[in-house]
C-alpha cells in the first residue's frame, strides 16, 4: 500500500508539471501522440525508437523499443550503456522481462518484477520502477513465497590399512535439504574395523527461519545456534536428543551491516561533504546539509575505534572533530541486546549401534547472551542431560583496540568445576596471548604383538588443566618468531616450551625460499617412558623451475619411543599435474635411526569426486601401508540429479543444476552469481552454488575473450531458495548466423512494424520492410508477428539462400495471404 501511494504521488507530481507544459506522466501514448506535430504522429507506433532507459532513477542504457497503440511498450534490445552504474546482468534481465509487451503505468502485483513503467515522448525516456526502492526499510528479507525443494548429500569415505595393521574404514553422510519453507539437516557416521562396527545418526531435524528467530524440531546434539559467545559447559554434548529448539537468528536480516551503538553527529554550515578517517586513512564520505545531522555508520567496518570527521565546504576544511565508533564484532544489530537459544526433549538415539544408558531421560538447556556494553558481552548457560548437569557463565570484554579478554566459569557433573581465562594483547609487530583452560587430553601408544595378538593402538585420556603464554613477533616482513610456555597438571604434568624462528628469502631473484628452525621441551608420556620429549627441527621449502613444482626438506632430533635421541632427515617433492583426474603428485623419503622410509601420494579431482591417496613404507618396521580419503556430493532438485567433485563438494548448501546443450562440443561458459561467486560450465550437467534465502540472479556468458557466433538461451536465470533448495534449468548454446530480408504485404510492398522473432534473437522490420536478425542454425525458424497480432512461422535454412559475406540474404518474405487476411 505504501508503495502504491508513493508511486501515485510521484506520478501526480509529474502530472502537475504537465499542466505547465511538460508531458503528463499518467497520459496514455495516444494522448501524448495527440500533442505531437502531425508530421511525426504516424511514426510513433510500429517503428523501433531509440530511447533512454532508467531503472529506479539511474541510467540503465539506450535501447530500441516498440510502442503499441494499446498503451503497451516492448523492448527489442539495448544498443549502448556507457557510464551506466548497472552491471550488464541487469540489462540482460530487463531485456528478457520486457521482450513481450507490458502495459505502461502502475503495475499489478504480478508485473515481471516492476512496480510501474512510464514513457515520456518529450524526453524519449522509459522509466522502470521496482518494488525494491520502497521495501528498503524492511527489517527482514522475505522467504520464497512457495518455499523450495531439494536435497544435497555430501559423502566422505576414509580407508586406512597396511601390513600387520588391521584395515579400518569410515563413511559419513552430511545432508542438507529443503521442504517448502523448512530446511533439513542430517548427519550419519559409520565405522568399520576388524571385530566391530559402529554407526550413529547425530542429526536429523528440520529448521525454519521466522524473522529474528528460528525453530528446530527433530534429532540433534545439544549444541546451540543464534548466539554470539557460548559459555562452555563440558560433559553434556555427547548424545542426541529428540525435541525442539528455539532461538535468535540473523539469517533473514535485510541489511547485514550494523550501525554504531552510539550515534555519531556532525554539524555543517552549508552543503558539503564529511570525510571519515581512521589512522589517516579514508573510510567513507557522506554528503551533509546545513545543521546537525547523524552520520550513516553502517558502511564503516566493525569494531570499537576512534575516527576523525573532516567537514569540507566549498573545497575548504570547515571543521575537524574526533568521534568513537562502537560496532561490536559479530553483533550485527546492537539494538537487540538479548540473544538466546533453548531446547527441550528426551535423550533418544536413531540408527545408533551403542544406545546410551540414559535413553529416554530428559534433555533440556538454554543459553543467553546480553550486550552489557559495546565492549562487553555476557553469557550464561544451563543444561540437564539425563543425570548430567552443567552450568556456565562467561564475559567477553574488548577493553581496547589492542586488548581483549574472555572469562568462563563452569561447574559440571562430569568435569567438576573449572575456569577458562584468555587475554590477548596486540601490538604493532605481534601479539601476546595468555590463557588457562581445562580440556580432555588423549594419548595413543602402539602396543607390540604378543601371544598371537597383532600390534594395536591403545588410547588413554583424562582431564587436564593447562596454563600457557604465547608470544608471536614479526621482526620484518621476512622474519617472524614465536614462543610458547605451558604448565600442565592432571592427566599430564610438567612445563613445556616451544620456540621457533622463520624467514623468507628470495633465491636468484625469483624463487621463494622459506626456512624455519624450531625446538621444544615438553613433559614426557608413556610413549617415551615418561622421559621428557625434546627435539629440534630445521625445515626448508623452495620452489624451483616454476610454480608447478616445489621441494622441501627437514632435519632434526627428537625423543624416540624408549626415550633415546632419534635423528632424522626428510625430503619432499610436489609436482602439479593438472590432468583430467590427477591434479598433483608428491613423493617423500626419510631416514631415521631405525631405518629408511618412503612414501608417494596423489591428489585427485574430477567432476564426480575429489580426494587424496597415500602409500608409504614405515622407517622403523619397513611395513607398507596406505590410506585414501574421497569426497563426493549428490545433488537432487527439480526432477534431476547431479554428482559433484571439482573442489566444491564441501561447501554446497543451495544451488542450481544446469544442463548445457551446445552446438559447440568444446565450449566453455561461465555462470556468475549476482551475490558473488562463479563457476565454469561445460556441455552436459553442471552445478552452480548460489546464495540461500536471498533472491538473486545467475548470468551465463562465454568464458574468455573470444566468443563464437552463438547465442545463449537463457542468458540469465533468477532464483530465490531456502537453504538446501535446488532447482534445474537448461542453457542452450545456439550457433547463429545473420539473415537480411524484407517483409512484404499481399501486394508485394514492404511492410514496417512486423516483429521478426527467433529464439536466438528478435527485430522489427523498418521502413520498406527491411530487417536483419541473428538466427539459430539448430532451429532456423522465424515467427512473423503483425501489428494486428496475426502471426505465422517460416523456416530459413542456410543452404537455400545466397550469401553475401557472413550475411544470408533471404529476400522478400511474408505470411500467406490467407493468414494475413484473417
TrEMBL record:
Signal peptide: 1-20
Start and end residues of each Pilus assembly protein C-terminal domain: 721-815
Keywords attached to this entry: Signal
InterPro entries: Pilus_assem_C, Pilus_assem_E-set-like_dom
Keyword Cytoplasm listed: no
Domain Pilus assembly protein E-set like, chain residue ranges per copy: 262-327
Domain of life, source organism: Bacteria
Protein name in the entry: TcfC E-set like domain-containing protein
Amino acid at each position: 500500500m505504501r508503495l502504491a501511494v508513493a508511486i501515485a504521488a510521484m506520478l501526480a507530481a509529474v502530472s502537475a508539471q504537465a499542466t505547465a507544459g511538460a508531458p503528463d506522466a499518467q497520459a496514455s501514448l495516444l494522448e501524448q501522440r495527440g500533442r505531437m506535430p502531425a508530421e511525426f504522429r504516424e511514426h510513433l507506433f510500429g517503428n523501433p525508437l531509440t530511447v533512454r532507459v532508467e531503472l529506479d532513477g539511474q541510467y540503465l542504457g539506450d535501447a530500441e523499443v516498440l510502442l503499441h497503440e494499446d498503451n503497451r511498450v516492448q523492448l527489442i534490445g539495448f544498443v549502448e550503456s556507457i557510464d551506466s552504474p548497472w552491471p550488464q546482468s541487469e540489462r540482460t534481465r530487463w531485456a528478457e522481462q520486457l521482450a513481450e509487451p507490458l502495459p505502461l503505468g502502475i503495475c499489478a502485483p504480478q508485473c515481471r518484477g516492476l512496480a510501474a513503467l512510464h514513457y515520456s515522448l518529450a524526453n524519449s525516456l522509459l522509466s522502470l520502477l521496482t518494488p525494491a526502492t520502497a521495501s528498503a526499510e524492511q527489517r527482514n528479507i522475505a522467504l520464497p513465497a512457495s518455499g523450495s525443494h531439494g536435497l544435497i548429500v555430501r559423502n566422505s569415505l576414509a580407508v586406512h590399512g597396511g601390513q600387520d595393521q588391521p584395515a579400518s574404514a569410515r563413511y559419513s553422510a552430511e545432508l542438507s535439504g529443503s521442504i517448502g519453507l523448512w530446511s533439513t539437516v542430517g548427519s550419519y557416521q559409520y565405522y568399520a574395523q576388524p571385530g566391530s562396527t559402529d554407526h550413529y545418526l547425530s542429526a536429523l531435524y528440520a529448521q525454519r527461519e521466522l524473522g529474528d528467530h528460528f525453530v528446530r524440531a527433530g534429532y540433534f546434539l545439544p549444541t546451540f545456534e543464534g548466539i554470539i559467545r557460548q559459555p562452555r559447559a563440558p560433559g553434556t554434548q555427547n548424545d542426541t536428543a529428540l525435541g525442539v529448539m528455539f532461538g535468535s537468528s540473523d539469517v533473514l536480516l535485510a541489511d547485514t551491516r550494523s550501525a554504531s551503538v552510539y550515534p555519531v553527529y556532525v554539524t555543517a554550515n552549508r552543503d558539503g561533504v564529511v570525510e571519515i578517517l581512521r589512522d589517516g586513512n579514508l573510510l567513507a564520505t557522506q554528503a551533509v546539509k546545513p545543521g546537525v545531522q547523524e552520520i550513516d555508520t553502517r558502511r564503516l567496518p566493525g569494531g570499537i575505534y576512534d575516527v576523525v570527521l573532516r567537514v569540507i565546504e566549498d573545497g575548504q576544511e570547515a571543521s575537524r572533530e574526533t568521534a568513537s565508533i562502537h560496532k561490536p564484532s559479530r553483533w550485527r544489530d546492537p539494538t537487540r541486546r538479548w540473544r538466546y537459544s533453548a531446547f527441550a526433549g528426551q535423550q533418544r538415539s536413531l540408527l545408533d549401534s551403542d544406545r546410551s544408558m540414559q535413553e529416554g531421560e530428559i534433555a533440556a538447556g538454554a543459553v543467553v547472551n546480553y550486550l552489557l556494553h559495546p565492549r562487553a558481552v555476557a553469557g550464561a548457560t544451563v543444561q540437564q542431560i539425563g543425570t548430567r548437569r552443567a552450568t556456565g557463565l562467561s564475559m567477553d570484554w574488548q577493553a581496547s583496540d589492542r586488548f581483549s579478554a574472555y572469562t568462563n566459569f563452569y561447574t559440571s557433573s562430569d568435569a567438576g568445576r573449572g575456569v577458562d581465562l584468555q587475554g590477548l594483547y596486540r601490538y604493532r609487530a605481534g601479539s601476546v596471548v595468555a590463557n588457562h583452560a581445562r580440556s580432555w587430553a588423549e594419548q595413543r601408544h602402539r602396543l607390540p604383538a604378543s601371544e598371537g595378538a597383532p600390534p594395536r593402538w591403545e588410547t588413554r585420556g583424562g582431564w587436564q588443566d593447562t596454563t600457557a603464554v604465547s608470544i608471536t613477533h614479526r621482526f620484518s616482513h621476512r622474519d617472524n618468531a614465536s614462543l610458547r610456555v605451558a604448565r600442565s597438571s592432571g592427566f599430564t604434568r610438567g612445563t613445556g616450551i616451544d620456540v621457533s624462528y622463520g624467514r623468507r628469502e628470495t633465491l636468484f631473484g625469483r624463487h621463494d625460499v622459506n626456512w624455519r628452525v624450531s625446538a621444544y621441551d615438553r613433559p614426557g608420556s608413556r610413549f617415551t617412558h615418561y622421559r621428557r620429549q625434546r627435539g629440534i627441527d630445521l625445515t626448508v621449502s623452495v620452489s624451483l623451475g616454476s610454480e608447478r613444482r616445489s621441494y622441501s626438506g627437514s632435519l632434526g632430533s627428537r625423543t624416540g619411543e624408549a626415550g633415546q635421541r632419534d635423528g632424522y632427515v626428510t625430503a619432499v617433492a610436489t609436482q602439479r599435474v593438472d590432468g583430467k583426474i590427477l591434479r598433483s603428485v608428491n613423493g617423500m623419503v626419510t631416514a631415521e635411526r631405525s631405518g629408511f622410509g618412503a612414501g608417494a601420494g596423489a591428489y585427485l579431482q574430477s567432476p564426480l569426486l575429489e580426494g587424496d591417496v597415500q602409500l608409504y613404507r614405515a622407517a622403523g618396521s619397513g611395513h607398507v601401508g596406505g590410506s585414501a580419503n574421497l569426497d563426493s556430493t549428490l545433488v537432487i532438485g527439480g526432477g534431476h540429479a547431479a554428482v559433484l567433485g571439482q573442489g566444491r563438494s564441501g561447501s554446497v548448501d543451495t544451488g542450481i543444476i544446469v544442463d548445457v546443450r551446445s552446438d559447440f562440443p568444446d565450449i566453455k561458459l561461465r555462470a556468475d552469481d549476482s551475490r558473488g561467486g562463479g563457476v565454469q560450465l561445460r556441455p552436459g550437467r553442471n552445478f552452480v552454488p548460489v546464495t540461500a534465502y536471498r533472491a538473486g540472479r545467475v548470468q551465463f556468458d562465454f568464458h574468455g575473450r573470444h566468443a563464437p557466433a552463438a547465442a545463449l538461451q537463457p542468458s540469465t536465470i533468477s532464483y530465490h531458495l531456502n537453504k538446501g533448495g535446488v532447482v534445474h534449468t537448461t542453457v542452450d548454446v545456439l550457433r547463429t548466423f545473420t539473415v537480411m530480408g524484407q517483409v512484404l504485404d499481399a501486394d508485394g510492398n514492404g511492410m514496417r512494424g512486423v516483429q521478426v522473432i527467433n529464439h536466438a534473437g528478435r527485430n522489427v522490420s523498418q521502413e520498406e520492410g527491411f530487417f536483419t536478425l541473428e538466427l539459430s542454425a539448430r532451429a532456423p525458424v522465424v515467427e512473423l508477428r503483425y501489428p494486428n497480432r496475426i502471426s505465422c512461422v517460416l523456416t530459413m535454412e542456410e543452404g537455400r539462400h545466397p550469401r553475401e559475406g557472413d550475411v544470408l540474404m533471404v529476400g522478400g518474405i511474408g505470411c500467406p495471404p490467407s493468414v494475413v487476411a484473417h
